[in-house]
Sequence to fold (862 residues):
Amino acid sequence: MNLRQLLDRGTALSRQRLAARVLPVGIAATALTVAGSFTPWATFSGYPGKASLAGFPGGARIFTLLLAIGMVAALLRPVGGRRRAGLLCAAGIVAISLANAWSITGQGGGLVNVAYGVWLAAVGGALGVAAFAALPDDEPVALRPHWPRAVEYALLAGVVGLGLYAVVVALAIGEPSRFLSYLVFLGFAVSAASAVGAMALLPKLYNRHQPVALGLILLAGIAFPFTQNGNATWLRVAATIGTLTVAAIGLNIVVGLAGLLDLGYIAFFGVGAYVGGIFSGAGRSSIHVHLPFLVVMLLAALIAGTFGLIIGAPTLRLRGDYLAIVTLAFGEIFRIVANNLDGTAGPNVTRGPNGISGIPDLKIGALDIGAPHTVFGVDLPYFANYYFLELLMLVIVMVIFSRLNASRIGRAWVAIREDETAAAAMGINTIKLKLLAFAIGACLAGAAGSMSAHVGTQVSPESFTFIESVLLLAAVVLGGMGTIPGALLGASALAIIPEKLRFLQDKRLLVFGIALILMMRFRPEGIVPNKRRRREFHDETGGGDAMSAAPGGPVAT
Amino acid sequence: MTLFLQQLSNGTVLGALYGLIALGYTMVYGIISLINFAHGEIFMIGGFAGLTMYKYVLPDSFQRKAAIALPLVLIFGMLCSIIVALLVERFAYRPLRAAPRLAPLITAIGVSIALQELIRLNYPGAKAPVPFPRLISRGAIHPGGITIAYVSIFIVVVAIALMVLLQGFISGSRTGRAMRATAQDPDTARLMGIDTDRIIVTTFVIGAALAAVAGVMQGMRVGTVDHLMGFTAGVKAFTAAVLGGIGNIQGAVLGGFVLGIVESMATNYMPHGSAYKDVWAFVVLIMVLVFRPNGLLGERVASRS
Fold:
């Protein structure tokens, strides 16, 4: 027996010994967490989820319980990547219990108000971390699904249904502490699932059955208003944000496909909104002309697209950074001009800071969008009509997006994004194509904007600030550039989270800024990354493309 | 004619400030090709830090003595801005140095928003513009019927002095030469034994110090500081840098003065000029990019991808 074999045997032995210890410690950790999930967390009644009562996992306790189940699964099933999955579950338990301890301390007035259940769960989680840390690190098995079609469809439907359910649950949670616990839970649970390779399955299934998957997502979208039981709160938010989601997909063409950074995109949306408002027959409009909505929408798209051409033509000849700053400048010009075109400094077009208000509800043909309906016994407030209309727009825009993406033009855009010089050398007319992307993006934003005028019933300059442009950009980047589910996810996350975190009040922008920094640091490719982009960010050796061009430029003196 | 001269003088003061801020943009861009969006906020923090020194640190007896108060305010402003810039560089930008270009730019926007909000939420009274001491007597000289405040003279003199100093440093010192080398080709510079990380840090330090001085002087000129002052000033200063030819130090100074004077003239002579006060700089930017994308002093073709 040579030294090598001896060493191997030694490590195998120590591994066995460790593994032997992992199981009991892990089970103890789970037991503690489960016990913690069923025992009181707060000494006072009034903390969300009846946390002062024992015997059931209410409030945030359900999340620690679910994570404990995940921990047991990772403990007992020898799947690849279970070390990381278990660690994530255990860390999630620690995070949720400690966060709640902090929140209970804040609400109750002191640390004494934190009941023993929290500590049980926290210790359980910490033990879990210790147990799983002792396991050897292993890679998840790459799943290559080749199941019967029906099974794969069912799986996709299940995932989409789960997604809808997750959203509905998120919306139904009222208390900030519980909502935060839920977010933490979702984050750790999804990361744990991806650690064992389950998340890698999704893109594979998605790519194989893209039409079916998108159809399912659409179905979930249609089902959403029916989950609200006639409650208008979230439908109002959904209707308001819907137009921005359409715009986000338009921006995804510009940024995600063609790689052009547009920091003033909201201005095109604003142009559309003003066109939509001015020609809507609004009570307080500068021009009293009422055109049919479809005509107005086309007009808005055309005018916004024209602005896109005017801005794009001179700047798209230059490198990307200039475009960023010029679009930012355009966004500011738009806001200032809209603020001033009130008749005193220039013609009265936008009615200045007052804006255009009293915009009536849409009427398309015989269809009155301002009327509520009852379908299948569920009351749908009139916001649902806007919501469905936006869903339709979204479908159209998504079809445009995916058709463009799959076309010769789309491939040319990707080539330009990756390396403009090489693309030009391949015979691509880069300026023309960049201009096309920019103009299409502007048109879509304009069309979405004309709709937003009706949803919001008024248009005024302060809705079109730089922050709004950054928000749209964040929706695209957060979700994952160049993918449709990414843009949808990003836009809805940016719609829901600020509404839910109202307790942050005026700290929301601060949190947003910090979130941008952290996101770029830790997951720059977004939640649903484009395959190619993911490699771009995580492949150490894959440099040399246009977007990671070596820094450097002369400081001439 | 009097009006013209008056606008010229106002524009020069404005331009001196734009130039000081633009230097930070142009140097950072020259070295790591990053539009340092947060640079405007570094300028803003300089102003707030200077105010802090004056209001909360200096004893009453010193506040009235400009000769003592002014240098202390300036130095403290510079110090704070440098610290913030270093933290931002170390924790936000450096980890992303190899990442695709979009990532650091979005990070920079995030930093910019976060810094603005940190000041707005935490500085006493910063939810509205905060009064800033004049520090220099309110007097003015009146050559040829126009009014030039002492503050204006101070701003232009300090700005030009700093620009000359910087020029000397870049062209004369060893570090300056290393900076130029890094800007031209970071990889080769590293092969020549230059610690490029240190050079990048130096660049941020110099830019932050200049921006802080500009921030304090802006406070003295306007009489207030507010958390949003960095945004517009930052975008305009970047415009000045582009106008002069990005990456070019003399260009940034020239661009700053040209932009300041153009803005001040346009505000006065264009129809409804003052209502569109902040638009003119951007119009200039777009014009420059259409007709002379390399900027006034740039020689290089800017469309390098």
In short: The mean pLDDT of chain B is 87. Chain B touches chain A through 79 residues (CB under 8 Å).
